[in-house]
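Assess this one:
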Amino acid sequence: MCNVFKSMICVAFALLLASPGWLLAAPTAETLAPTPTAPVISISDGELLGLQNQLNSLKQQVSQASNYTQLESSQDLVQVLIQDIERLSTSLLPGQAQLQAQLNVLGPVPLAENAQITSAITTQRDTLSEQKSKIDGQLKTLAALKISAAELITQIASIRRSLIEAEVTQQTSSILNPGFWSPLFDLPHDDRQRFNTLIEQLDATHRAAWQPGQRAITAALLLLALVIWTVGRKLAGRFLAWLCIHRMPEGRLRRSSLALASVVATVLTAGIALQLLHFAGTRQLPYTPLLADLAQYLEKLAYTCVLITGLSRALLSTKHPSWRLPDIADQVALAMEPYPRLLASLLLVLVTLVQMSNVTGMSAEVVLFGRGIVALVAALVIGALLLRVSKTRRDLIVAGEAPEGVTTFAGLIYTFTGAAVVVSLFALVIGYVTMARFITYELVWIFIIFAGFYLLTQVYQDTCDYVFSPRQPAGKAIKQLLGISNPRLEQICTVFSGAGRAILMLIGVIALFVGGVGTTLGQLFTGTAAILGGEGLRKLNIVPDNLLRAFLTLMIGVYLIRTLRRWLDREFLPKTEMDPGMCASLSTLFANIGYVSVVLLTLSSLGIQWTNLAWIVSALSVGIGFGLQEIVKNFISGLILLTERPVKVGDLISISGVEGDIRRINVRATEIQLADRSIMIVPNSHLISQNLRNVTLGGSAQGVVILELMFPLDIDPERVQNLLMDSYTEHESILDKPAPFLRFSQLKPEGITLTITGYVGSPRTVGAIKSELLFEILKRLGAAGIELAKPPPAA
C-alpha cells in the first residue's frame, strides 16, 4: 500500500513538471487588477490657498508692527502656521509612499500580446501617476510655504532685535524727573479713552460669562481653578513626594527627584488652573483681538511667575532642609524664602498693567512709565534679597556658626547680580528706562534658566550614579551583560554623566539667548531646536528611533568585540604556531578595527550621510592642524607597527639610549619594560621615524660578551691569553660557533689592554654571563699570581 501511494505521488509530480501551464495559468485583466487598498489621504486646493493667505496676512502684520509685543504675537502665529504645514506634510507622506509602491509593482509598460491586459495596466498606471503627481505638487507647495514662513521668523527676529537695540539705547526722562510720574496722576485723554475701550471689552466678556443661567457654571469654574491652584497644588506635591519616597532609592536620586516633583506639581496645577480660567472667560463670548493678545501674553507671564515660585521653593526647600540640593544654610534659605514670591506677585500685577498699555497703543510716556516702575520694583526686590543674604551670613559668622561654603561660581553669580542691580538703578536715574527694564528682565530669565537646568543636571547626574552603580541592580545587570569590572563601570558612568551635563549646559546657554520673560516652554523648545537644528545638523537626520538603534548597535558591538577578543587571546591564538608577539599584535589589530567598525555602524544607525559631513571633516582638519597632528601621527604609526611588524611584543630593542623589552603596542604609544622592571612609554611615531635597534628581530640574534682588561707591561702575554681563553671556552654558555677570540687592543705606558669576545645564545643573558666570567677570571688570575694594571694617580 505504501509503495502504491509513493508511485501515485511520483506520477503526479511528473505530470506537473510536464504541464507547467497547470501552475502558470494565463493572466487576465481581472487577475492583474490591483487589490483594493486604503484610500490615499490628500488635501484640497482650498487648504493650500488658506495657508498661503494666512502667511500673506502675517507678512502684512509684521510689516505694519510698531512695537515689540505685536512682533512677538506675529511670531507665535507663524510658528503655529509652521506646525500646521508640517502636520499636513506628514499626513501626505504615507500616501506618496503607497502610490510609489503601487507604481513600482506595475512597472514599465510591457510588450504583452493581450491588448486587454495592457490597456488595464496602462489605465491603472495613469491613474496612480496622476494621484502621485498631485501629492508631489502639494508637498512641494507645502515645502515652499514652510521655507517662506521660516524666513519670516528670521525677519521678525531681526526686526525685534533692532527695536530692542533702539529702545535700550534711547534716553528718556529720569525717574527723578517729576514729569516721569505724571501719568500716575494725570493720564492723557487719548490714553484714558483707549483704556476705557479695553475695560468695555472686558466688561462685555464678563457680562456674557455671568449672564443668568451661566453664573453657576462660571462660578464653579473659577472656584475649581482656585481649588486646583491652592489645594490641588499641595495634594499633587504630596502625592509626587510620596511616590519619590516610596519608589525612588534612598540617596541623592531621591532628593533630586523630590525637588523636580515639586516643580512639576506647581507647573501642572498652574497650567490646569489657567486653562480653566481661559475657558470660563471665553465660554460664551470669544475674546476680541485686543483681549486675545492680552490674554496670550498674560498666560506666558503667569507661567514665568509660576516658574519663579516653583523653582525657588524646590531649591530652597525650607520645610524639608534634607531635600535641599544647593549648599545653602538653613538661616540663609529662610531669609531668601519670601523674596521670590514677592517678586513673582509684583511682576504679575505690574507687567499686566504695562501690557494693557502696550496692547491698547497708549502714548510713549505711559509705556515708559510702566517700564520704569517694573524695572524699579524688580531691582529693589532683587537688591533687598542680596542685602538680606549678606546680612544673614554676617550674623552667622558673628554668632560663631559656619555658613555654607561659597564656591567661586556662586560668588561670581552674586557679584554679577549685584552689579546688574546697580547698573539698572543707575540707568533709571540717568533716564535709560528701557535699558533698566531689559536688565531686570534678563536677571529674572537668567534665574529661571540657571535654576531649571541646575535641577535637571542634578537629576541626570544622580540618575547616572544610580544606574551605573555596581551596588544597584541596574549596574549589576550592565556588568554582567558587558563583562566589565567596577572601574570600567565607573568610567562609563563618568562618560555618560559628563556628556549629558555638557549637552544640558549647551542647551541652557542657547536658551539664555532665544528666550526671555514671557517665553513659553514651547517657544523655548522651538527656538533651541532651531539653533541646534541648523542646516548642518539637520542633514544628520537624527531621530529618536535612530538614537535607540545607534545605542543598541554601540552596546552590542562593544560586547561582541570584547567577547571575540577574549576568545582569540585565550582559546584560538594560543593553539596556533605563531609567536606570542604576533598573537598580541593580531589581537590588538582586531580590536582596533572592530571598534572603528562599531563607530561607523553607530553613525550609520543614526542616519548620518557621509556626503553631508564635510563641515565636520573641515572642523576636524583645523583641529588636526593646530593640536591633533601628533595624535594622528602616533595613531597611523601604531597601525604601521601592527601591520608591518618591524617590532613586536617580546622584542628587545634599543632606541635613544634606552634598552628594554616591548611589553605592549597600543594605538598611540608603545610600552617598553626596562631592566629595573619599570615601564617607559614611547610614542609610536618615534619607533617609525628614529633609528631603532631590534636585538631579537628574526629570532636568531646572539648576545656578545666583551671584556676589556689592562695588565702590566711585564706580564707573560701568552700565559694571560691562555687563561682568558680557557675561562671563556670552559663556560657552558659561551658558544663554540662562532668561537671566542682575543685581541691586543692597546699598548700604553700604563700597561697593555686585552679584549676577549665570546657569543651566547640570547642577548638577554649577556649581563649575567659577563658577571660570572669576571668572577672566574679574577679567581684564576689570583691563583696564577697575575695582577691587573693599576691606574696612574690623579694629577
Notes: Strands lie at 652-655, 658-665, 669-673, 679-683, 693-694, 703-711, 741-748, 751-760. Residues 468-532 form one domain. The radius of gyration is 42 Å. Confidence is low (pLDDT under 50) at residues 1-38, 534-540.
